[in-house]
Amino acid sequence: MTITQLQYLLAVNNHRHFARAAESCFVTQPTLSMQIQKLEEELGVMLFDRSKHPVKPTAIGEKIIEQARVITHEAERVFQILQESKNQMEGVFKLGIIPTVTADLVPRFLSKFNATFPDIQLQISELTTAEIVERLRKDELDAAIMATPIGEKSIIEKPLYYEPFRAFIPHDHKLSKEQFLTNSELDINDILLLNEGHCFRNSVINLCNQKPTLNNQALSLESGNFDILIKLAKKGFGMTLIPYLHALDLNKEDAKMVKLIAEPQPTREISIVYSRAELKIKVIEALSKIIKEAVPEKLLKEKHKILSPVAQV
Predict the structure, then answer these.
(1) What predicted TM-score, i.e. pTM, was given to this entire model?
(2) How would residue 32 be classed by pLDDT, with cut points 50, 70 and 90?
């Protein structure tokens, strides 16, 4: 039994397809299949039911896969220890980020991270919360930045900052004359929402404590982009809610249409999350520090109403 065989085993389990697993491991399918077969012969058990499409681990295969994950983690930890002892940080670091954070946060920390770790290739993937959790489970990410808490036992959550919501209300909206909004003034059916799969959408719905309905709306649109929602709001199709960092980067004219929400301000908790195996922890800790230095200091202290990123209504 070799570490390489166990890595192939995990790849097949992750992709549930021998050809795609081989491609992810940069080997030919016959090479990967032969090594899996040798492992099965050595163990005396079938690890995958090849009659299923996609292929599926057998009952004993699932148990061995879990142990293989532990073994490969520990093997990788050896190399991490060696790198850290030599103060050498190199290789690939795979980071997932939810879409509602990427555009507003990445430009704030990327240059500093690259300067601090010139030998690390940072691979950023924009992913939904569900995709991040799944990839962390499969060890396809080293860490991720997302809204929390989500309560997944398999991952560790370390808060980075607390980001209040802001209301974007165009000049011709019925609430445009208000100095600030109260929660009771927020009507879910008057708020342009991000589409399903975005945790920010869930937080807004949780804030209003009401699911959106079509009723007699002139427009029912859900987008994955804050800028589109802002443009539509300016065209008279309602209002929208945006995170603090996005509001901070608006042009002067649009910034005039941003309003505070009364205390306790609705807020999302943004955390760095990672597997409990805690591989590459030195890089994760350094990245956390860089991000905290890159956002306004007032966002570092929890003092508002944290909204769940998980649908509750």
Answers:
(1) 0.78
(2) very high
